[in-house]
Amino acid sequence: MNKSELIDAMAASAGITKAAAKLALESFLGNVEGTLKKGGRVSLVGFGSWSVSKRAARDGRNPQTGKTIKIAAKNVVKFKAGSELEGAVNK
């Protein structure tokens, strides 16, 4: 399912217009992104939670040449599925 298909499904199931569904989805995504940028955590009970963790700088290898390269430190977004979501997927 892509973004436009999700908007269509949200509009149909909630009985709202596609424009309102698009606005709601974009608001949700913007708020999640803003919270994660500030280093916060977003948790939806039963569905899952998003958090940011720091990945340290490390040495890696170029697979073509075998030379050692430096991989920079960066922040990564992690998602952990909630128990209800895991249960629904594993039925």
Automatic annotation (TrEMBL):
SMART domains: BHL (SM00411). SUPFAM superfamilies: IHF-like DNA-binding proteins. It comes from the Bacteria. The keyword Hydrolase does not apply. InterPro entries: Hist_DNA-bd, IHF-like_DNA-bd_dom_sf. It holds the Pfam family Bac_DNA_binding. The keyword DNA-binding applies. Keywords: DNA condensation, DNA-binding. GO terms for molecular function: DNA binding. Belongs to the bacterial histone-like protein family. This is HU family DNA-binding protein. It comes from Flavobacterium ponti.
